[in-house]
Every structure is written in C-alpha cells, then in structure tokens.
Amino acid sequence: MKSSGFIQKLKEGVRKVTDLFIGRLRNRIIVLFLMVALIPLVATSIYIVNEASSALINKQKESYEKLAIGTADIVDEYIEQRMTEVKILAATTDIKSKDLVVKSKFLKNFAENTDAFDGITYTNSDGIVFADTFGSNFGSDLSDRWYIKDGLEGKDSYSEVVIAKSTGKRSIIVATPVKGEDNTITGVLSGLIDFEELMKKYTYDLYIDDGAGYPIVVDSKGVIQLHPNQELIGKTVSESGVSQGLAHIMQSKGTRSGDTTYQDGGNTFIVIHASMEDSGYELYLNLPQKAITEEVDSVKKEITIVVLIVMMVVSAIAYFVSRQISRPIMEVASVTKRISTGDLTVSALKIRTRDEVGQLSQSVNAMVENLRGFISKVQFTAEEVATSAEELYINAEQASKATEQIATTIEQMAEGTDQQLRDTEASVSTITEVAEDVLQVAANAQQVTDSAMQTSRTAGEGNEEILTVIAQMHAIQETVTRIADIISNLGARSIEIEDMAKVISEMAAQTNLLSLNAAIEAARAGEHGRGFAVVADEIRKLAEHSARSAGQIGQLVSAIQSETHLAVESMAQGTKEVGLGIEVVDHAGKSFEIIQQSINQVAAQIQEVTAYSQQMQSSTEQAVAIVSQISEVAKRSADGTKDISAAAQEQLASIEEVNSFSGSLATMAEDLRNIAKGFKL
Fold first, then answer.
1. Which of 154-168, 289-303, 381-395, 487-501 has the highest mean pLDDT?
2. Degrees (nearest 5) of the Cα angle 667, 671, 675?
3. In this structure, how many other beta carbons lie within 10 angstroms of the beta carbon of residue 172?
4. DSSP assigned state of 310
5. What's the predicted TM-score (pTM) here?
6. What is the pLDDT of the chain when averaged over all its residues?
7. CB 215 within 8 A of CB 290
C-alpha cells in the first residue's frame, strides 16, 4: 500500500511538472525554442568534444611516447659514446704499450680531464688488474667477470647494473678488448659509469605531475634498476609486488615502443614503452590516464560553459517571443472562458493584428454578437412553447380519461367472450377425447377379436398336436415293452452262457490234471517218454488258456447280467413314466377343447362390442363437428373483441404518450427558459 501511494504521488508530481512546462502555450514555445537551439548545439558539442578528446589524448600519448623514446635513445647514445671513448683509448699506443707505468699514467691523465667515467681499469689477458685510475685495485683478479671474459674473446660488452667496489655506487661497466701490434688480444679496457647519475640526468623530465607519472627501467634479466620506490630496485618484476597489469606489461616485451593501458584500484594507467637496444634495457613511463585527459577535461568545461550561456540567451529570446505570441491568445482565451459560463456582456476584443490571432479575435467578436441575438430569440420562443404545452397537457388529460372508460368496457366484453371461447374449446376437446377413446375401443375390440380367432385356431392346432403326441406316446410304450422283453430274454441267455463257462472251466481243470499225470509218466519213461511229455505240456498250456478264457467269459457274463438287470429296471420305470405322460397329454387335450370353445364365445361377444363402438364413433363425429362450428364462431367473436380492445388500448397509450409528451414539452420549455435566463445579455 505504501508503495502504491508513493507511485501515485510520483505520478501526480510528474503531471504537475508537465503542466507547468508544457501545459501553457508560453512554456511550450520556450521548450520548443530550447529544443531547436540546444539539440544541434549539444550534438555538435558532443561530437567536437569526442573528436577533440581523441585528438588531444592521441597527441599527448604521442608526445609522451616521443619523450620516452628520446630519453631511451639519449641514454643509449650516452652509453654508446662511452663505449666509443673506451675503444679509442684501447687503440692508443699508451694502452697497447707493455710498460705498465705508461698505461697507468695515461689513464690517470685521461680521468683528470673527463667526468664521464668514475674510473677506468686495464686487465691483462689473465684478467688481472695491471692499471686503473683508482690505484687501489692493482693485482685484483677480475677474470670471473663476464664482461672481462667477453673482452678477452674480442667482444665489446655492457654489464648489468652492479655495485662498484671502488665507489660503492650502482654503476654500468663498458668493456672492449685491447689488441697488440700483432692484433692479438693482450687485455681488456673497461670504464665505470655512474648509473644513478645517468638516470638522474636524463630521466628527470619523465617525472610528471609531482611524481604521479614516473619512469621504470628494467634490465635484460628482468631486474628493476630504476623506480621511485627504492625498495623495489634490485628485485625482479615478479618479486617486486607491482600491480598485475603493470607486471604483465613489463614481462611481455613487445615492439621497440608503444603504449598499453591497465587497471589498478579502479584507476586507469597508461604505460609507454621504449627499448634501449644497445644496452638491452627497457624504459617504461607509467602515467595515470587523468594526467593525459586533464586538457580534455578543460575543453569539456569550456564547452559546457558555452552551452549554458547559449541556453540562457535562447531562453531569454524564447521568453520574449512567447510573450508576444501568447498575450493576444490569452486575451481570446479569457473572453471565451467568460462566454462558456454564459456571460455575453464581454467587451469586444481590440486586437488589430493581421495574423491568425487577429482573425480569431474578430471571429470571437462576431460569435458573441450572434449568440446574443440567438439567445434573445430562444427566450421568446421558450415562453410561447411553455404556454402551448400547458394547454396541450390539459386537453390530453381529458381525452385520456374518456378513452380509459371505453377501454375498460371493451376489456370486460373481451373477458366474457374469452371465457365463452375457453368453455367451447373445452367442450370440443372433451368430445374429441371421447371420440378418440371410442375409436380406440373399436380398434382394441377388433384386435381382441382377431387375437381370439387366432387363439382359437392355435388351440385347435394344439389339440391336434396333443392327439398326435398321445399316439406317439403309445407307440413308445409298446416299443419300450418289447425292448424290456428282449433284455429279459438276454438275461436268461447270459445265465446259460455262464453255465457253459463253468463246464469249460471244469473241463480245463480235468485236462490240466491229466496233462500233469501224463508228464509224470513221461518222466518215468525217460528218453522214450520225452515226446509224450512235450505233448502233455502243450495240453497243459491249452488247458490253462481255456481256464483263463472261461474265467473271463464268466466275468463278462456277470457284468452283462448286472447291466441287463439295470436295463430291465430302467425299461420298467420308462414304461411307467410313458403311461403317466399319456394320461397328462390326454388331460391337456381335453383342456384345449374347453379353451377353444371359450375363445369362440368371447370372439362372438367382442364382435358385438365392435359394432356398437362403430355406431358410437359416428355419433361422436357429428357432435364434434357441431361443437367445432360453435367454437369457431366464438373464436371470431373473441378475436373481434380483442381487436377492439387492443385498438382502445393503443388509443389510450397514444393519448398517454401525448399527455407525457406535453408534460415533457412543458418541462423542456421551462428548462429552455431557465437556460436562456442563464445568459447575461
């Protein structure tokens, strides 16, 4: 809720500000002037600032890049000059001389006449100091120094920044080989250059904005040799702890020169790089970007001031012009505002200009005069309309009362006619229903007659079928009886078969006994009785087989006797059931005969009912026709009464509308009169 209230207040504030600056014509003209003047000016200023900024920044970068390259070249040239001087000294006869006193004297004289070297040293081919300008290093072994080794190999070399033992200062050593008359290397001549003094002399101009921009020198091994922070000198770039952006730039050596930017602590820095090719050193000028953009910021401020001055001048001109334009329009607006409230007593506008505003003021004056004449006519007409409306209202009231009485009488007649019509229609409906019922009775009676006749025929057919069934049942009874006799005879025959099987079994037993005795006798007879024994054995087997077969026959006969007994009992029961069926079917046949006789009697009675129903149907149709004629006459009478009643109602409604219209007309006339009174003439 609080959020919605804040949004509502914000919208209201925006609306008020919009009305203040744009709602009035004068303010619109001022805003339009400012837009026409300032948009091109601001766009042009932005373009100029951007172009000038780019040009100035590029110019500043180019200037600082030239300064860095110039400084690197000067340092390189200075070191190269020292190398040239050492080489010239090495080529002199005094240095080439084998007399150490001559060499020492020559070096001292040279050192007294120059301040370019802190000292000069000569070492022989073994790296032993034989002469120097210090006088204290004689006999020192410098053979382990790499610049001595390079010199003995015939190479010119430059050392890294070292701490000189003789001076205790950070120095650079330039060395060159010394050759004898036979062009063999006899030693190395080296000069000591004060590095601190060299940097102080030639990098002074690289300290910008009170040290905000400063130079950094890194040797070929990545060791920082010059930095405003003395604690970083002698450390490698990776060990120094400088910002990652600056360390990355110094570790990735690129071209001979160029500029790169990096971010540190939310500030942008520009690094300008220049190489000292002879010595292998790298010079980096680290600058905050604001040191380059200060001049750009100054240009931006100046352009902003110009834009503000132009805005003020344009605003003043716009105010004057808008006042000249809006003053006559405001006069017209004031007059039209009074006219909108009904005040036509306003004085004529006295604007005499020939522009559109002058034409508008003349049109307003003409409109006021026309409105005065029109309102006068409206007031007069409103009085007359009000009088006529009152008279019309009185006449309409009288006509409305008379028409209302006529409509009431006709409505009563219509109600009586409607009641008569409803009664007649009810009679027609009742008689019609009776006629339909009679028709239905006749139809049903005919259907019943047809059904009775069909049932009678079906009963006769059923009786005939029952007689056929009875005859068939008798035939079945006789057949079952014959089958029962046959099965009984079969049972008697099976008894005879059983007796014969017993005889066969007894004969098989006797034969088996005889074969056994014959086998015994054959055994007694020995070899002579062997053939007889075989015959006796076969007889024994035959007797056993006969005994088994007789046993099986006995079992079969017993089973046949059992099943025959059951069949005889079933046949007896079937014969009994067939007899009962014959009695039931015979009784059903007699019942069918009785049903057929009853149906014939019912059919005759129904035919009489059908004939009577047909007579009733004819009489009912005549009654329906007569009552329908009466209903039609009553309906036409009711319709005529309704038409008259409707016409009376319509007339009454029309009179009431006239009455209402006259009342409304009177009200409108009064309103018109009141409206006309609202104008001041």
1. 154-168
2. 170
3. 23
4. H
5. 0.41
6. 74
7. no
Judging by DSSP bridges, how do beta strands 224-226 and 119-124 pair with one another?
Answer: unpaired
pLDDT of residue 399: 58
Residue whose pair of structure tokens reads 């009200």 in the numeric block: 667
Distance CA 617, CA 636 (A): 29
Distance of alpha carbon 337 from alpha carbon 318, whole angstroms: 27
Of residues 517, 512, 546, the one with CA closest to residue 533: 517
Query: Contact 518/532 with Cβ under 8 angstroms?
Result: yes
In sequence order, the β-bridge partners of residue 285 are: 215, 272
CATH 1.10.287.950 spans which residues of the chain? 372-675
Identify the three-state secondary structure at position 656: helix
- Out of 9-23, 225-239, 553-567, 598-612, which region has the weakest mean confidence (pLDDT)? 9-23
Residue 151 pLDDT: 92
Element counts in the chain: helices (H) and strands (E) = 11, 11
Give the CA dihedral 420, 423, 424, 429, nearest 10 degrees: 160
Tokens of 114: 């120059």
Q: Which helix (H) or strand (E) holds 225?
A: strand 224-226
DSSP-derived 3-state class of residue 458: helix
Q: Which pLDDT score, from 0 to 100, does residue 83 have? A: 92
Q: Is the pLDDT of residue 157 over 80?
A: yes
Q: Where are the beta strands (DSSP E) in 290-372?
A: none
The SS3 call for residue 645 is helix
User: With helix as H, strand as E and coil as C, how does 487-541 read?
Assistant: HHHHHHHHHHHHHHHHHHHHHHHHHHHHHHHHHHHHHHHHHHHHHHHHHHHHHHH
Each residue's pLDDT tens digit, 487-520: 677 667 767 776 776 777 777 677 777 767 777 7
Instruction: Give the DSSP letter of residue 223.
Output: B
Strand partners, 193: 172
Q: For residue 665, what pLDDT band results from cuts at 50, 70 and 90?
A: low
Neighbours of 202 (CB within 10 A): 19
Closest CA to 123 of 91, 106, 147, 105: 147
Question: Rounded CA gap, 297 and 289, in Å?
Answer: 12
CATH architecture of the domain 53-299 equals 2-Layer Sandwich (3.30)
| Torsion over CA: 503, 508, 511, 516 (sign) | negative
- Higher local confidence (pLDDT), 469 or 174: 174
The full DSSP string for 37-54 is: HHHHHHHHHHHHHHHHHH
- What is the C-alpha separation between 583 and 505, in angstroms, rounded? 52
Q: Return the pLDDT at 187.
A: 93
C-beta neighbour count of 454 within 10 angstroms: 12
- List pLDDT tens digits, range 308-353: 887 788 777 877 776 766 667 766 777 777 777 777 676 666 666 6
Q: Indicate if the pLDDT at residue 584 is higher than 60.
A: yes
Q: What CATH number labels 372-675?
A: 1.10.287.950
CATH 3.30.450.20 residue ranges for the chain: 53-299
* Non-local CB neighbours of 9 within 8 Å, separated by 6+ positions: none
Rounded Cα–Cα distance for residues 320 and 582 (Å): 141
Q: Which DSSP letter does residue 226 get?
A: E
- H or E element at residue 214: strand 214-218
The string of DSSP letters for 198-267 reads HHHHHSGGG-BTTTTBEEEEE-TTSBEEE-SSGGGTTSBHHHHT--HHHHHHHHS--SSEEEEEEEETTE
CA–CA dist 207, 223 (Å, integer): 21
Residue 672 clears pLDDT 70, i.e. is over it: no
Residue 289's alpha-carbon distances to 60, 135, 153, 198, 298, in angstroms, are 10, 51, 48, 28, 15
